[in-house]
Each structure stands twice: as structure tokens, then as C-alpha cells.
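Need a sequence for this fold. Nothing fancy.
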């Protein structure tokens, strides 16, 4: 029951909202500053987010605790943004967008709970 239900809502989310969620997550990092730096910097940032997410997921799976890959990726992007700030200066994390995403990550499981009929 859960797989078709999940598939339906994922399809409807993309069909009605387009790529708004992906663009919201993408806006966590300073794209305007990244574009002015050498391409290697952006590639390293993407690679770092990917490897950190994979390492965290594998670690949690190995010890048997539940983990959300989307939460992991968002956390890795915030971490990469903080490292970007530390190394290059300026704003590295869009905290307003991070707050919006954080609120949606907390509220969405509550909305998705199976309510009594």
C-alpha cells in the first residue's frame, strides 16, 4: 500500500510543483559566488556533499539506525556552505532557505502520518 501511495504523491508533487523543491534545496549554497570561482571549486563542493552523504548513509545503515537521505544531503549542503564561508568568506548558507526547508522536513512527516479513519 505504501509504495503506490508514495509513488502517487511523488508524481503529483513534481507534476503540480515542478522543480520548486529541487531549486529550493539548490538555493542553500551561494551559487552566485560559486559561479565567479574556478569550476574546480564547484566540482569539489558537489563531490564533498555527495561523499559526505554517502558516508553518513552507509554508516547509519551499517549500525542499523534509520536515516533519511534527503535530510542527509541537506545537512551535507549546509556543511559545505559553512566550509565555503570559512574558506572564501562572505555568506555561504542561505539561512532563510535553510529555515524553510527545515520547517518542511519537520511538518511533512506529520502530514503523512496515517490518520484514523
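Here you go.
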Amino acid at each position: 500500500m505504501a509504495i503506490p501511495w508514495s509513488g502517487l504523491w511523488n508524481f503529483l508533487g513534481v507534476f503540480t510543483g515542478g522543480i520548486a523543491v529541487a531549486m529550493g534545496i539548490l538555493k542553500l549554497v551561494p551559487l552566485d559566488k560559486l559561479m565567479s570561482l574556478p569550476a574546480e571549486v564547484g566540482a569539489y563542493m558537489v563531490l564533498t556533499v555527495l561523499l559526505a552523504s554517502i558516508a553518513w548513509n552507509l554508516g547509519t545503515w551499517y549500525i542499523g539506525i534509520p536515516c533519511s537521505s534527503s535530510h542527509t544531503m541537506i545537512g551535507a549542503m549546509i556543511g559545505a556552505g559553512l566550509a565555503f564561508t570559512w574558506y572564501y568568506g562572505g555568506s555561504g548558507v542561505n539561512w532563510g532557505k535553510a529555515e524553510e526547508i527545515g520547517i518542511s522536513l519537520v511538518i511533512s512527516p506529520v502530514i503523512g502520518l496515517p490518520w484514523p479513519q
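For context: DSSP finds six helices and no strands in the chain.
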